[in-house]
Design a protein that fits this description.
Blueprint: H1 41-52, E1 59-62, E2 76-81, H2 84-93, E3 98-101, H3 104-110, E4 115-120, H4 132-144, H5 156-164, E5 167-178, H6 187-197, E6 198-206, E7 218-226, E8 232-238, E9 250-253, H7 254-259, H8 271-283, E10 287-288, E11 293-297, H9 304-307, E12 308-309, H10 311-317, E13 324-328, H11 342-350, E14 356-358, H12 368-374, H13 377-382, H14 386-389, E15 405-408, E16 410-411, E17 417-419, E18 425-426, E19 430-435, H15 441-448, H16 451-460, E20 462-465, E21 468-470, H17 473-477, E22 480-481, H18 486-490, H19 493-504
Parallel strand pairs: 1-2, 1-4, 2-3, 4-5, 6-8, 13-18
Antiparallel strand pairs: 5-7, 6-7, 8-9, 10-22, 11-19, 12-14, 13-14, 15-17, 15-19, 16-21, 20-21
Helix pairs in contact: 3-4, 4-5, 5-6, 8-19, 16-19
Amino acid sequence: MSTLDLAEPSYPDPVADAAFDDIHAYPSPDEKRLGAYYTPQGVAEALTQWATSDATPCDVLDPSCGDGRFLVGVERGTGIDIDVRAVEQALTRVPTACIIHTDFFSWAERTERRFDAVVGNPPFIRYQSFTAEMRERALAVCAQRGVALTGLSSSWAPFIVAAVSLLRDGGSAAFVVPSEIGHAVYARPVLEFLLARFARVEVIAIRQKLFPNLSEDCWLLRAAGWGGTAVALHIARVETFEPDVPPSFEEVGIVELRAWNLRLRPLLLSPDVRAAYLEAAASGRAVRFGSLARLGIGYVSGGNAFFHLRPSEASRLGIPRHLLRLAVRSSRDLQGLEDVDDAVVGDWLARDRAVLLLDLKHAEALPPAVQEYLDSAAGRAVRNGYKCRNRSPWYGVPDVTVPDAFLSVMSSRGPRLVANSAGAVCTNSVHAVSVLGGVSVRSLVGAWSSAITELSCELQGHSLGGGLLKLEPKEAREVLVSIDRRIDESHPVFASGARELRRWRNAHAS
């Protein structure tokens, strides 16, 4: 493909990049769809200066160059971008660079060029929007380099793997990365790869947002000595990134990293808190929640507004009481509660909340009032939805069960475990908990509020941005619970650790 640079670069391109360009292959895309959020210029300059400090002159690659800000001041820069508008901006900003309009993964598969440094802010496109063709190409490129990523990986991960693979021996890399690198399962093989291929790997965790208008928090990733092997990961924890202030790094050995299963979020804590937590887990005085209870998901109605009625609506429609089930619909219903009991239910009904599920799965015959409701305009609309039209009968909500307790999926203060004395059912917006033998619901709910469990929720869960913590079923099973609450008395650092991690996700820390 013909490069779109305004001036020919002063170095040859061994693969003849001109063979791969099709200026009309991509329409002008929406920046959000492409994950294009431009880095503050000061951050871009600091990362590029760090990556190029040991090599002059230096061949520098930005695999998703946007408007070219990472290449400003670089004598021999190459930028790749799929967005023609970004390419035009880059040509104006850095006219001496080689700017190529193409899909980076196609180019990376074919190019024979190698670089002294790779820099940039890889696009953050979640897997749902990472188009199938590009995703398959990206995962194939990573597989060729020995990194197995799944289709659930966001785009930044394969960008980094493919880009650093184009380094010369001794080369360096510096990237803006989402804080997902600290907790996402798909980030772990990327970290394994970096630690195995670089002599030194650094992560700078930044509490204040680099991008104020985004919910996603961003950190910085730096690596030096391509071709070496790291014996530790170096992490710095800073409130804000100040380009002129060298961060202070803690060295965390590979053994401890593996104890945390290569999750970096625990490294936001001080070494003494981490040591106390690992000791408690190893001692057996705290056990995994999954050994005490079984977690499942609630039902998927296929139309919550239709299948959940207010008491006043059910009365007006004439729906028989035996076809209605009290339902917990979201984590918000559990706020401030320890038990969904008769008093709580009475309050919900008195406030005429839409908490009555129309449960027809096992109804032998439909009363006329129910049939009339199903045949209403709202019913005709709901039955054509994906869930309803793919089940028989369409109005029979499956998997309606009564758990022993409910566990909230997300919240700002932390997930709550709430008993279910009233025998309610729940949607898939909360976790359904069935307690195993040997422990009572009451003792498990009481233990859940302990400091070690609060800290464990913070460590096992992940931030959604905006101060929210989410706990997936697999994560919840790994949460530590101490039925004997005395463990908190011997380790007061657990409470301070929980507060610190809440502070890092910008939640209320009290």
